[in-house]
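Before the break, one more example. Copy the sequence into your notebook; we will annotate it together after we see the structure.
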Amino acid sequence: LDLDTAKEELEEFIPHVREMSDTSIRKMAGRDLTRFKHFKQQGISIKFGRFSQKENDQIRKNIKEFLSLTGIENAEKLLFTCRYPEEKETINRLKSEFLFCEKIAEGIPRPWRLIYYRARKIFDPNNYKGRYTKEEKEKLKKYHAIHGNDWKKISEMMSRSNLSVAMKYSEIKSINYGPWTKEETQKLMHAVEDVIRKRSKLEAEKSSSEKSRRNLSIDREKLYQKLPWTEIETKVGTRYWRQCKQKWNSILTNKMSRGQQLYKGTKGLQAKINLIKRLYEMKVEDANDVNWEELSNAIGDVPRAYVQAKFYRLKVSCVPLWQRKTFSEIIDYLYDEKLPELEEKL
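Here is what the structure looks like once it is written out:
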């Protein structure tokens, strides 16, 4: 396909495809377009966001079958071939011969690149080394001073994954872990406003002239979904991205609910009851399939992250051995065991 045709056909599945680089679009057209069309014929939509347990299991199955097919010794050699320079040529030949890209993505309605990154995260032994020691943190700061944001090089020196060292550095470079000051909060609000307005302006320029003539408006959805938190972290300067995200959600919750205590007293009981009932009625098998945005009015006019946080607290405090239960088992327990108790208390 030529580039314009590829963009046009991919746009049906990837709405933001025109914002991607030409190289990425060409790769996606080659690796994903046929797969996407096949999933469409089956009535399956392309997914983004967190991987479900079912998808993780499918990735493990695909990797296991590919290793069996090729005789490659283990997943680390398959996914981190550069760590084995003496075997690199042989492994790459086998990957090409047995269609690695197609096999690893089999049965998973997502872009190939996301599946590949997820597989690397699952099978990288450097991902599961626990908390960083004080000595490791000092090493990380030292290596970053020398190599900057070359996370691949730093990860090799520390025997940690790229993602792990990048996120840990983002965390430890922050100098403030106490309550937010008024100045920090203002910086955060200005940073979020800046990135949202820039994004909205770009979208307005791409839309029809009639829409472009309107005053710039910001949809509620844009206030808390898919914000570039690492960019916002840089603008704030004294907090790392996760702190910024949590603080912004708390600000939104307070503003959208006009400062009311939504989860206290009888209102809190009613919110829990409503949340359990709505989740039960949805009859979904995985938390990733829940429309949390739709659920926000079960508690009040709040961001979906607030609803997710409240559900997490509910299952942790009320469901015994919740870690060993599936999502549907947790919901059934809350509905059968906890709901009558909450209704009686109310």
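Residues 134-173 form a domain with the Arc Repressor Mutant, subunit A fold (CATH 1.10.10). The longest helix spans residues 182-206. Try to locate both features in your own notes.
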